[in-house]
Fold YdcF family protein.
Amino acid sequence: MPIRYLFKQLLLPPGGLLLLLLVGWWLRRRAPRLAAGCFVAGFGGLWLMSLPVTVEWAARQVETEPALARSDWARAGQLAQAIVVLGAGREQADPGWGSDQPSHIALERLRYASRLAKSTGLPILASGGLHYGEPPSEALLAAEALQRDFSTQTRWLEERSRTTWENAVESAEILKAAGVERVLLVTSASHMPRARWCFEQVGLQVIPAPMGFLGVPNGRPFGGWLPESKAIWQNGALLNEAAGLLLYPLLYP
C-alpha cells in the first residue's frame, strides 16, 4: 500500500504538476527552454485544476452513468436483490466524535443507500476494508453510521478490500453465497463507471445508483473562473477516476 500510494500521489496532480515546477527550477540554467516549458505546464496545470469550471467540464466526461430517478426506485427494488454501498475513506480520531468516522463522501453515499433501502426494502452490504491498514474497517464504520444516524440495518460487512476491484471481488463472494446476483450499486457518480465495470467483471448484475454529481452548473460568481482550493481536490479525484478507467482493464483483464 505505501509504495502504490507514494507513486499515485507523485504522478497524479497536484503532485505531478509540482514535480514539473521543481524540474523546471532544476533545469533553469542547463536547459532554459525546457525549464520554461516545464514551468508553463506545471503552473498552467495547477491553475486549470483550481477552477470550478474545470471540475464541471471534467465531471461531465467521467460521470457517464445517469442518476436513478426517484420514479424508478420501486422498479429497481423489484429487479435487485440487495444494495451495495462502497466506502470512501475515513476521518481518523475525530475529537468532536471521539472516534474514527466515515468521510463526508462516505456519509453522502450512506445517506443515499439508507434512503434506497427504506424505499425498496432491500438489505445492504457495506464494502470497505482497513484504511491504510489500521482498524476499524470502513464497512464497520458505515454500518455504525447507518444504524446510529439513519436508523438503517446493514446485513453484510465486506471488510477486506483496499481497492475498487477488491470491493467487487470480496463483495461478490459474500453475495453469491447468499444467492444474490443483482445489486443496486451506490457510489459517487464519478466513481460509478469504474465500480460498475468491476462488479460486472466478477459476475454480478448491476443497477447503478450514482449520487454526488459534480458535472452540474457550479453556481459560482463569474461562472467558476476564479481559483478555489476545493476545485483542486475535486479535479484530482476526477483525474484519479479517469486514470482508473484506463488502467483497470489492463490490470484486471
Residues 2-62+226-251 form one domain. DSSP finds ten helices and nine strands in the chain. The two ends are 21 Å apart (CA to CA).
